[in-house]
Fold:
Amino acid sequence: MMLRRLQAGLARLVPVLLAAGTAGGPALGALPPPTPAAILQEMRSFRETATVLYLAAHPDDENTQLITYFSRGRGYRMGYLSLTRGDGGQNELGRDFDEKLGVVRTQELLAARQVDGGRQFFSRAIDFGFSKNPAETLGFWDDKQVLADVVRVIRQFRPDVIITRFPVPPGSGGHGHHTASAMLAVEAFKVAADPKAFPEQGLTPWQAKRVVWNEFGQGRGANGLTGPSVQLDIGGNDPATGEPFGTIANRSRGMHKTQGLGGFSGRDGSGPNVQSFMLLAGEAPDKDLLDGVDLTWKRVPGGEEIGPLADNAIKDFNPDNPAASVPALLAIRTKLATLPADPLVDAKRRQLDHLLLVCLGLSVETTVPESEVLAGEQLNLHQAVTVRADTPVRWMGVRFPLVKIQTNVGVVLTAGQIALSDSTAVLPAGTPPTQPYWLRTEGSVGIYKVDDTALIGRPENPPVFPVEYVFVVGGQTLVVTDEPVQLVAAASEAQSRRRLSVIPPVSLDFAAGVELFAPGAVREVTLEATAARAGVNGKLRLALPDGWKAAPASQAFHLAAAGDKAAKVFKVTAPVHPGAADIRAVADVQGAHFNTRRVVIRYEHIPVQLLQPPARLRAVALDLATRGQRVGYLPGAGDDVAASLAQMGYAVSMLTGADLTPEKLRSLDAVVIGVRAFNERSDLADNLAGLFAYVEGGGTVIAQYNRPNGLKTPRLGPYDLSINGDAPKYRVTDEKSPVVFLTPDHPALTTPNRIGAADFDGWVQERGAYFPVTWDEAHYQTILAVNDPGEAPLKSSVLIARHGRGYFVYTGLAFFRQLPAGVPGAYRLFANLLSLGK
Structure:
């Protein structure tokens, strides 16, 4: 039935020719063509056969000027393998952390590669926060699996040279992830060539010529390492645009806006830039990183004629008529077709086809009225094709590989006109909701689980519904791949095109991400269902862990129109013993089960991202006592602590700097300052006097962590304290590290909750960061000591000062991670800090 409907829809496909620029037509015809200089440079790039892989740990670790130099300057295939997606870092732009931040930073890296011309790869490793040594890192990551991923990328991409951003021991990258990335690169360099290693990958072994460390600039012998090295000036100008490589690289680096690097975009980068590279393994270079590598087409069996043919095409290129190069390119294509499949040859085939497209000025675009579709729904596809050259091009048809359907068109394209067609197709009924492939299955602490191994290494999902346009040019068949997008009016160009996503008929969400229960208590939990389409009926229920109960067992819902919501209240009973568990939501609709929530991520510099993770509630049964009723919250860089305070039973008022006066704060029992507020807020420094006066009059203030760099005021409390110092030394990355109670009878550890060692169980990612280095010991009391293995105890994770009749607390403990994660002990300790003096 589905196939017949699709065939009937395709039979109605009728091509229509419209003049370019006609109202209502696609924006395709208005797209600016590549400059002749850019086309010529891509021809030079096609002639080159070198491949280079840069490897590091995180987004923003890469040397963007080196990537620009090799990809846009020398025309090499240049890739960056970031072992992680930056999931464990901070966010300078908003409240998206963990896997959501990883999705954002993935897109930032893709945006950066669009600027500098590199390709992007990832392993399955999770950024679990700062790590002080590579042994800890490799233990978290499962080094064998991450090594397998690096080997996979090497075997698929076939680099001649591998470059690490960081050194191997005895050198240090300053971060366990950094040093571990270099260690894995050196090991993978050797293992990738071993046919007995990871045979399950089904990939041909590959031996790169060498792996080198891109030194930090201190010179030979720096960082405890010695070895053969070469220097390379990566300065110069892009042959296609004349722009300095450094300026392009700064624009690329400026895409890392969630890391506060947006300011790089406007920086000039002209002038020389001499970089040093030290051999870590393989053959030592003499003068250049590619020494000893055959850079010609002679390296490809049967490819000896390709180089001269490419040279002639470059020599004969006419910038006033790029289409005149089409016969020469087709001749090369004929020769390429005789060569056996190989990663380099396959990449060059794709590059040559792209050259044909740009020389012809041939563009395709597939649009849909809505970017979100349900499995089993009909897709209304609008295809548009344009060509600028007078060279005869016949549009033969369109193929939809997912449903194995092809339609015939048979139109000869006319220069300067747009060929339009409409067709329909049905998305297969079993298509799952769209979710980034590395988030589809729950992984471990250190590594994502990816069931489809063919996706490992890819930056993002392949198209939901691929489209192939078939053309004939000069007697040869040219297939152009595309995917449906929705064109929307948006605040930025990056947001104007929405990829096709599959959604369920109903999305689910809890009213809160965490619910706190007294042991054995009953609380009302609200589950909300939102319809994606009209007329959705079904039942809602909770999937409960052992020991938890809910009434009723299920509840019917009816949603008449798209966008309608139904909120159902369940009475949930916690077990009699303290503990935490996940409660999941399920909607039963027409015999199918749906369990996802809807998360839309919007930042102007990247495309809109849709995440559909399981709808899950963190339910925490704990003994928690609080004092006071009203808390003010002054936001910093962004966190979810205010919502956690509301879960504790407090009435929360959001504050601005102008509110920090004793008069305006008088009704509050406490004030909490958000993370990095002293870095981010311009209205805090001038109002500190009023805040401290509130404390002096009997109020309580809790200031959460800040970074030592970029403080808008050096004054962080009513008495001197400083966070300036070697930041890695003043953080505790082991979330399981033991905690010593320095002042066990202090009210912060006894009132109204008696804090014990068990309250520090189950913490996530870290204990805390950026602890004060020095403080006024006559006024601040220390209550805890904590340290990473082998290091001296740090006593400043929580500093408490009595100021007048009130209390001021400065803490580097990672409450902003623990509270949203539902860590019971973090709630109990934070409640005590809020209750000081009450």
In short: The longest strand covers residues 579-589. Residues 50-293+455-460 form a domain with the Rossmann fold fold (CATH 3.40.50.10320). DSSP finds 18 helices and 42 strands in the chain.
